[in-house]
Amino acid sequence: MAFSSGLLPQRLTLYALCTLLATPGLAGAASDSARVITTQPEKAASRPATSGKAAPDKANVVALINLEEVLPDCQQQVAKVKIKSVQRSESGITTESITFSVSNGNITLPTHMGDNPVLTLDDLQDATRFIKVGNSYFIHFQTCEHTQERSLINIYAL
Predict the structure, then answer these.
(1) In terms of domain of life, where is this protein from (predicted)?
(2) Is residue 2 assigned to a domain?
(3) Does 47 reside within a domain?
(4) Which of 8, 19, 24, 102 has the most CB atoms lying inside 10 A of its own CB?
(5) CATH of the domain at 116
(6) Phi first, then psi: what are they for 43, rounded to 5°?
(7) pLDDT tens for residues 93-141?
(8) What is the pLDDT of residue 93?
(9) Does any domain span residue 93?
(10) Distances (CA, A) of 6 to 37, 44, 59, 84, 111
(11) What is d(CA 130, CA 39) in angstroms, rounded to the nearest whole number?
């Protein structure tokens, strides 16, 4: 199932999130299929130009999907969370890890965005703007039994 920019509503429902997680090709996707999912940009005509030129249309990011490969020996989990803190790369372009507030404490998950071969510089910048401390999200992550390592698979705006 392929997604294109503008096809997802700006706010995803729990039903839509469950459908996305259960869709073949998303739940078992490799990290080389990472995607930044966006909605249609706000029309430039509805915004006043500040410099005499029309402002470029900028899409709204609503999800980051397939950031990591889903591994068969790992436990899959989903949660509604709030971002407590973010660890950025030295350049500030890439989000290296995110600490989330969950019902029983905090959980820190690496994003592996900087290691991802398919995310462009624009994708990384959009992802950085999407991930904001204090905002709530719906996440899909995994915990691998043999190493107890956790990794972020998908993150959706609420």
Answers:
(1) Bacteria
(2) no
(3) no
(4) 8
(5) 2.40.50.140
(6) -65, 130
(7) 899 999 999 988 999 999 989 888 899 999 999 999 999 999 999 999 9
(8) 87
(9) yes
(10) 8, 16, 8, 29, 24
(11) 13
